[in-house]
Amino acid sequence: MRDFYDTAFDTPLMLGTAQYPSPAIMEAAFRASGASVATVSLRREAGQGQAFWDIIRGLGVHVLPNTAGCHSAREAITTARMARDLFETDRIKLEVIGHADTLQPDPFGLLEATEVLAAEGFEVFPYTTEDLVLAGRLVDAGARVLMPWGAPIGSGLGLNNRHGLRTLRAGFPDIAMVVDAGLGLPSHAAAAMEMGFDAVLLNTAVAQAGDPVAMAEAFGLAARAGALAARADAMAPREMATPSTPLIGKAWL
Amino acid sequence: MADVTIIGAGVAGLWAALALCKAGAAPRVIDRSGPPGPHGCSWWAGGMLAPFCEGAVAEPAIVRHGREAARAWAEVTPVAHRGSLVVTLERDRGELARFARRTEGHEWVTGGLRDLEPDLPGPSQALFFAQEAHLDPRRALADLVAALAARGVQIETGTACPEEIAGPVIDARGMAGTPPGLRPVRGEMVVLGAPDISLSRPVRLLHPRHPLYIVPRRGGLFMLGATQIESADRRGVSARSLLELLSAAYALDPRFAEAEVVETGADLRPAFADNVPRVLAQGRVLHLNGLFRHGYLMAPALGRQAARYLTEGIKGDLVHED
């Protein structure tokens, strides 16, 4: 596993902390999943939510504050600075939303905010698309981690553009990458990990499941399965059937 | 001389007082702001008695006890036994099927709501929870106070500290109380006046981003609620929340765009980590707290369990001994 600004996470699963039926269920979901990172939204919850923040801290995982809901570089930068003070970490998952319906990132605002925050010593985790050119610019601006989307936030559609994600992965072999957003099923997480991504981040698929704890465990297993598979050098698909035992000399019955 | 002193005259404290009266005790009720009013979060509630709908995400205890709430309330205040409706916008139809899978006590309504709510043209499909009910929370609080007065219990205005009071104390102060593990969950609501719209039961709109419920009240009023934010922010409703609540109402019925904004409100719901209320016994002090968004649904059961614990030593499932 590539590391994330010199931090290695124990497991390749990152979970969001919103929309659970209760904090008790959220906590159980984290434990069942083995997630190593919790993302926290600053704008709505944490500003005045000391009690909730204490619960997050009690999870005993790395905290990754985000700028969810920010629609401009300036707003995201301000939020990131507040998050640094509040959560006492330089990590920031940078979201600059460019479109209200699809919540897809605004590439221009994202680049601008990445430049500013990286220069201020932030460890920027930019939420981006699979666009190769934008990824290059973000890396040039100082991002050492990229978080391409699987599909629009909360959609559960999975990996919408596998070819694009593969190309992105191959394009930046030294950059840690997290597939973030749009995952609906554990198989999506496993597929992302099999493609060589370093972690997956999701929230809704677990928090809104009928049994969030079971779904969290399923995602934890899937992410680890995918990670193992990625290191195990999978066979190449073949057009022709190849029997695993020889046909010639088969016993007659 | 009172046998039990109750601090806090919100739904929890008042129901504990009533349950104690019924058990033959003579409770005393003190609240720093006197009888119920805008100072307490009970004032801002929706007044839905909807245990089955809540069961989509709440623990089973909420459904189990909540089923008794409508009957308990009907002894002190008018309760509308009209059921409740759950609808979605057409594009989110999958949400309705998912909600149906996670709840019981409902039936599918297809082909429009003509029979149930003739004035709501929108949704072609809905879930109808026939056994659910609703009430007017402010009227219910006043009726509860009146029921206590009839039993000789007056709400005293004054500050009281549990440590300074002799005998058993029920601390039902909500966020002003300090049982361990209590957290605030901010809620915001709007009251609209729309005399041209008539609904006879609460309607919930399942929406992936902005879930909402509308509870009809007398005089053409509609309560829209409620946000649920992990925050201790006590300021008034935010522009964003107002925008979301009003947009969802507008999506449900465009006539709400012409409604008068009669009132907005925001307050903090006290909640424990599992969002289930507790009777927490710490020595002489019983904390009745953590009613979260289930104040009207759970207060009768919580008050009854507190009274039984104090008068008979029976430890119900909501009672925790520290």
Automatic annotation (TrEMBL), chain A:
One of its GO terms (biological process) is thiamine diphosphate biosynthetic process. Pathway: Cofactor biosynthesis; thiamine diphosphate biosynthesis. It holds the Pfam family ThiG. Its EC number is 2.8.1.10. Keywords: Cytoplasm, Schiff base, Thiamine biosynthesis, Transferase. InterPro entries: Aldolase_TIM, Thiazole_synthase_ThiG, ThiG. It catalyses: [ThiS sulfur-carrier protein]-C-terminal-Gly-aminoethanethioate + 2-iminoacetate + 1-deoxy-D-xylulose 5-phosphate = [ThiS sulfur-carrier protein]-C-terminal Gly-Gly + 2-[(2R,5Z)-2-carboxy-4-methylthiazol-5(2H)-ylidene]ethyl phosphate + 2 H2O + H(+). It comes from the Bacteria. Belongs to the ThiG family. This is Thiazole synthase. It comes from Salinihabitans flavidus.
Automatic annotation (TrEMBL), chain B:
Keywords: Oxidoreductase. GO terms for molecular function: oxidoreductase activity. Residues 3-308 form the FAD dependent oxidoreductase domain. Gene3D superfamilies: D-Amino Acid Oxidase, subunit A, domain 2 (3.30.9.10), FAD/NAD(P)-binding domain (3.50.50.60). InterPro entries: FAD-dep_OxRdtase, FAD/NAD-bd_sf. Pfam families: DAO (PF01266). This is Glycine oxidase. The lineage of its organism: Bacteria, Pseudomonadati, Pseudomonadota, Alphaproteobacteria, Rhodobacterales.
